Amino acid sequence: MNDARSQPAPTGGVRTVPVDGERAGQRLDNFLLSQLKGAPKSLVYKIVRSGQVRVNGGRAKPETRLQAGDQVRIPPVRLGEPADRGAPARGLLEALAASIVFEDARLLAISKPSGIASHGGSGIGFGVIETLRALRPGEPLELVHRLDRDTSGLMVVAKKRSALRELQALMREDPRAGGGSIRKRYLALLAGRMPDGVMSVDAALHVGLRQGGERHVQVQPDGKPSLSHFRVLERRGGHSYCEVRIETGRTHQIRVHAGHIGHPVAGDDKYGDPAVNRRLREQAGLKRLFLHAASLEFALEAGRVPYVLNAPLVPELVEALDRLA
Q1: Is the same domain home to 116 and 204?
Q2: Which domain holds residue 251?
Q3: Along the chain (325 residues), what's the average pLDDT of each consecutive run of 10 residues?
Q4: CA-based angle 256:202:176, to the nearest 5?
Q5: Which residues form the RNA-binding S4 domain (predicted)?
Q6: 89 with 95: CB under 8 angstroms?
Q7: Considering the domain boundaries, does residue 207 fall inside one?
């Protein structure tokens, strides 16, 4: 079976692409990114939301899950050849090669450095997936999930479509309906003194777009259900070093929930407290978002193959904590 990623995206003429069984369950935006080599995510979202992309003749959303046999209409778009972008910088290649924390026949896991996007596009030449594909030419690597550019930590990449489909199905499970068989754990420094014990935040989130296409997330009753659990591990310099477990994986979920309860994530220049961020830069040398994806626990092959993947807290965050002691 041909790999759709290996086929060049034509720039002229509408085409209709059938979804094969290997891509059943994939999100429409990810399917389009695989078809439109080199297209920025902003362009993919634009052509979907404007109705130029159709699934079985009807409009669809970027998060629509495709089924085997679906017919996806893809409009003509203007793209440069993949070679026009050159290759990832040597430093980026070396950083990603050194970041691998686990690998087997199904999966590859990295501890993503802060500052590297999950995908290229919108002025970003190479993200995690493009760089890993450059490191492993010919391997059918696919992102299982994403992390914000400024968040560091565990990211999982599938080496087999079967593993990708199973993991994405686990991530879609609703914990309120007895699902939630994938456990996600983060580490974060929150501004101020959180109360002891576990604080659960059950607040729906809505993703809006600002001028220029920047995503901005807000707590809104008509948003998507979102659930986070915060637990203080230590008090440092008047702030709270916390473990965060999330039962849903919404865009910017932890950052928005933390700000919603009045304890924004340290170093967050989008949803945080500028005065706190400035003091932490001066006192602790914290120059980035203090949010780290620490672990994932799940099982594949219908529960027969358990995984416990970990990415230790990165040195620059450990050093910032030590300065606050």
Answers
A1: no
A2: 180-324
A3: 41 81 83 81 87 93 91 83 65 94 96 90 76 90 91 95 88 60 94 94 87 78 94 95 93 96 96 96 96 96 93 96 91
A4: 130
A5: 26-84
A6: no
A7: yes
